[in-house]
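In response to reviewer comment 3 from the previous cycle, which asked for concrete evidence that the modeling workflow produces usable outputs, we include below a single protein chain processed end to end. The sequence was submitted unchanged, and the resulting structure tokens are shown without manual editing.
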Amino acid sequence: MKLRGLWDAMLLYRSGDDFKFFVIEPGDISCADIRAIRAELNNLNLWGGVRLDINATLQCLKILIARSDAMQSGANLIALRRRSPRQIIRGLRQSFFKSLGTAAALMNDAFLPIPEWFTVENTDDAEAYLQIINEVVDKGGCLNSLQESNSDDGRVLQVFREWLLTGELDDLLEFHHMFAPHLMRRFASGEWARPFGAENLSKLLTRAFKEKQVTEIIEDRGFQSVARAVRNATIYALTIPNMKREVRFGLAQKWKQKIKSGEEDFTAALAEFVQEYNWETAHRLKGIGHMVTTDELDSLMKLVEKRHAEIVGSLLLAYGFARAPKVESGQADAEVVTAI
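The workflow returned the following structure tokens.
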């Protein structure tokens, strides 16, 4: 049985002289489907340490969904509708062996669960899964600018893997907070990087964290307006030609500290930023461009008072350093965001 399992469900990856085994742990899935998923995974050019853990887990989930009845019609498909992916495949068992010359030592034995962000009720849910995954694992995936050999980048990858392990909102928002300074560093040095998209972020948050009632926050008009202001003053100020806005370096780090200090400190920092941003629009941009209205700022302040700085501020940073939604990009504005 072990020998059959080796050929049906095991994958081997090398990193120099070291190597890592993955074994697909089945849930409610046939042996034939396990073999097919394993074969597709084996044909992918996956590599790395932490990056390999992330990509193997998400690619396995992607293949599972693509081969399911939620994406195709016909016979002999994986039954995924009205179920979570983890009911079909529980995850990947992982063993990492460190080369010691003439022998190898087992350094880590872990389990990487398949994400079950939400139940796949229909094709829309399945497509949402694929869009969220593709943003990470595709050729131009957002994590591709992170260099595992760099200690700062490696820590960001570790936090993303931690979120895959736990599925907790706090871990996801911590990753986005750490990813924001990475984007700013890359853009400032003229290197490639890709922000996450606000639309896919919304698909994930509204489906996976319904109990956290995040929809009330992210759909608030004040939240959306200030997130747009953050976007214009950071990643777009660095990347869009003739933007004419001052680049707010260190904004993510500053706000994170204010968030930890509580509502009063965070709202003060928020008001200061909006005041400076609006002044810049009115004077440096001659009134042409996006401005945060008094009503919008008041709406956001009430939201902070009601839902607290920790979640509102963290979500604001995630959206503020994300690519703009299409509805925003299509508005007649001096800061039309089509460059990224």
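Residues 54 and 161 are 6 Å apart (CA to CA). We consider this sufficient to address the reviewer's concern, and the full set will be provided in the supplementary archive.
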